[in-house]
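Write out a record, fold above all:
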Amino acid sequence: MSSPRRPLVAGNWKMNKTGPDARAYCERLVALVAADGVTAEVAICPPFTALESVAFALAGTPILTAAQAVHEAESGAHTGEVSATMIAATGALGTLVGHSERRAAGETDAQVAARVRAALDHGLFVIMCVGESLELRDANETLGWLSSQVAAALAHVQTDDVERLAIAYEPIWAIGTGRTATQEQAQEACAHVRAEASKVVDGAAVRILYGGSVTPANAAELMAQPDVDGALVGGASLDPESFAAIIRATA
């Protein structure tokens, strides 16, 4: 990853696409990005089974490959988990950490912090996720919740890690629901996340992404907000034309 605050758009495929599907997708996306003259940084986060295929397909292109999760241990008795060393060996350059769906499955704040550190220590770029539930939003506890999540997740981060770190604000109530935070809600939350992150790293350099039912129809207004530096895209990233349209919106 390169220059501070350069827009970053990451597509999280979740549990979708096999290796052959992924390769065909990558060929199409590379062509679209080249035709559009995209200046934003772009990353694809495929499932582990397609990680090496995607990294190979995207090698030599401006599009980066990242995993969807990482374990903090180097190796050991952790059935179903993947280490940072394993991710790096596929050719992938980054990873998501602390996605809300992983947290809902039991990933704790302490694990998120340890996994952020492990990924950074192995040279990976990290997109660390935070976000509130609908209950917290309705109880006006969003900002306090974000403060605690950011502080916990960055517990082992150092000042000079900022070049390999982005934070994705993903309101849980807007993920896969068709509901999207208003541009005002997205700006308020992302500005707050930046302020909290600035207690650990350079807040002016760290990129804050918005994630939560981002589509080609709403991407431009969301990314026009001063503290929104890009997007973490779920379902809309599964189609290369749709994802390319969102990438174009960063302009």
Summary: The CA atoms of residues 100 and 172 lie 7 Å apart. The chain has a mean pLDDT of 95.
